[in-house]
UniProtKB/TrEMBL annotation:
<feature type="binding site">
    <location>
        <position position="60"/>
    </location>
    <ligand>
        <name>Fe cation</name>
    </ligand>
</feature>
<dbReference type="GO" id="GO:0046872">
    <property type="term" value="F:metal ion binding"/>
</dbReference>
<dbReference type="Pfam" id="PF17954">
    <property type="entry name" value="Pirin_C_2"/>
</dbReference>
<feature type="binding site">
    <location>
        <position position="58"/>
    </location>
    <ligand>
        <name>Fe cation</name>
    </ligand>
</feature>
<dbReference type="Pfam" id="PF02678">
    <property type="entry name" value="Pirin"/>
</dbReference>
<dbReference type="InterPro" id="IPR012093">
    <property type="entry name" value="Pirin"/>
</dbReference>
<keyword id="KW-0408">Iron</keyword>
<feature type="domain" description="Quercetin 2,3-dioxygenase C-terminal cupin">
    <location>
        <begin position="149"/>
        <end position="232"/>
    </location>
</feature>
<protein>
    <recommendedName>
        <fullName>Pirin</fullName>
    </recommendedName>
</protein>
<feature type="binding site">
    <location>
        <position position="102"/>
    </location>
    <ligand>
        <name>Fe cation</name>
    </ligand>
</feature>
<dbReference type="InterPro" id="IPR014710">
    <property type="entry name" value="RmlC-like_jellyroll"/>
</dbReference>
<dbReference type="InterPro" id="IPR041602">
    <property type="entry name" value="Quercetinase_C"/>
</dbReference>
<feature type="domain" description="Pirin N-terminal">
    <location>
        <begin position="10"/>
        <end position="120"/>
    </location>
</feature>
<feature type="binding site">
    <location>
        <position position="104"/>
    </location>
    <ligand>
        <name>Fe cation</name>
    </ligand>
</feature>
<dbReference type="InterPro" id="IPR003829">
    <property type="entry name" value="Pirin_N_dom"/>
</dbReference>
<dbReference type="InterPro" id="IPR011051">
    <property type="entry name" value="RmlC_Cupin_sf"/>
</dbReference>
<keyword id="KW-0479">Metal-binding</keyword>
Amino acid sequence: MKKILHKSTTRGYANHGWLKSHHTFSFANYQNPERMNFGMLRVLNDDVVQPKMGFGTHPHKNMEIISIPISGSLSHKDSMENKRAIEVGEVQVMSAGTGLTHSEFNDSKTDEVNFLQLWIIPEAENATPYYNQKMFDEAGRKNKFQVFVSPKDNLVEGSLPINQQGYISMVDLDKDSEITYQPKKGAYFFLIEGEVIVADEILEKRDAIGITDAKNISIKANSSSKLLVVDVPMF
């Protein structure tokens, strides 16, 4: 088993006033040659957008983009004529493929929006752009992994497809609960809330650990916790 630990305090940080963003991997003005990616996982941003602010229309190409709201609601509009809000409990998948443009905005007058955005390098370039979002029943991840995203050619029932052999899952753990994760490729664990022990390493809020060359990964919750895992090819 090989492990790489990323404490929350080691992430890149940008404060633009309207946007506060923590970057797990190199992004924009944060460039760290030792933090470029974890296999096909290229970006994991932890963004907080102020009320009545947002990202103007901008382009993407050849990237699988997954957004997961943690608090608040984020409005979305794109060149594929999708115009929807993403709520807590929902997951959004946008396969940029040959190219698209979109915008993201916090419509609230009073509340911040906090969401995670992940970029996964696609299996093949120039696919037809694709968009979808889905509300996931939280009961489906109570002390067990709920698959949000999986490969389009090997789709897990109820999940959203991407153009890569990657999986994104979440588990809500009760205090003192224990669970085992069996990785398909390399597993990157990101702790949204709580405190857990993953493969004998303690993770606190917003800490992460990447694990490769493992068949079974043990997890124990020291407190009520919300844990995300991104399972991706390692090149």
